[in-house]
Design brief:
The protein is mainly alpha-helical. Helices cover 84% and strands 0% of the residues. The protein is built from 8 helices and no strands. The chain has helices at residues 4-28, 31-52, 58-74, 79-104, 110-129, 138-161, 165-190, 196-226. Helix 2 runs antiparallel to helix 3 (58-74), helix 3 (58-74) runs antiparallel to helix 4 (79-104) and helix 5 (110-129) runs antiparallel to helix 6 (138-161). The longest helix has 31 residues, at 196-226. It is globular, with a radius of gyration of 18 Å. The two termini are 29 Å apart.
């Protein structure tokens, strides 16, 4: 009989194999594989979390389910689906930030503000330089820029103030999410007719690794809280 550790390793391997196939499918725009594999990736991550976690945090489960819905909405690649995907992902980001603040227990907000500022500056610069943003998505993207900047700021300030395994994993996850948002923004609004296949491959790769790292951060944080 397989041990729990071996089952988790097998599912983790399956997760990355499917993520690689999905990323390649994005590059070649192979829709049948995309329709099946893109929603499957967060589902496998959810199974991993359910098996490994002793707490099974409802907030994290909801956040992963919202990422699943976002993945589905990104498949058609139409303006209306993109609009709804941004709405759903905004709620995902709010839940994720709530969970991170719950785990990090930040007492001094000055380092957080200092760490957040450069990320906010970069994303707002990109935003102001882009002229093709739909009117209905205008404020949603501003909110997204603020949320990802806070996420990155929390991760960076926590790592600088206290270099632990938990904070190291959070920083890696945050940087991957920053790269994901950067790539998606460039693909959808900046270079809309150039390098589409490459950007979609990069976005899917960052997405898979970022969410897996976030899952590892949650598991590590839960274990530390238990101890």
């Amino acid at each position: 009989m397989l041990s729990k550790a071996n089952i988790l390793k097998s599912i983790t391997l399956l997760y990355f194999v499917i993520a690689i196939i999905e990323a390649v499918s994005e590059y070649y725009l192979y829709k049948p594989a995309i329709f099946v594999l893109k929603p499957l990736i967060p589902l496998i991550l959810l199974v991993l979390y359910w098996l490994e976690s002793t707490q099974r945090n409802l907030i994290f489960i909801l956040a992963i389910l919202l990422s699943l819905i976002t993945n589905v909405l990104f498949i058609p690649n139409t303006p209306i689906c993109l609009f709804y995907a941004i709405i759903v992902f905004t709620f995902h980001r709010i839940l994720t930030l709530y969970l991170i603040f719950k785990f990090q227990k930040i007492k001094d907000f000055i380092p957080l503000l200092i760490a957040t500022a450069p990320f906010l500056l970069i994303f707002m610069y990109l935003f102001t330089e882009t002229v093709d943003i739909p009117q209905e998505s205008f404020y949603l993207i501003i909110i997204q820029n603020v949320l990802i900047s806070i996420f990155a700021g929390v991760a960076l300030s926590s790592y600088v103030m206290n270099d632990t395994k938990q904070n190291s994993i959070l920083l890696i996850s945050a940087l991957l999410f920053v790269m994901l948002q950067f790539v998606v923004f460039i693909e959808k609004y900046f270079l809309t007719n150039e390098y589409q296949q490459l950007f979609r491959l990069l976005a899917m790769s960052f997405n898979a690794v970022a969410f897996y790292t976030l899952y590892k951060y949650v598991i590590t944080s839960e274990k530390l809280n238990n101890n």
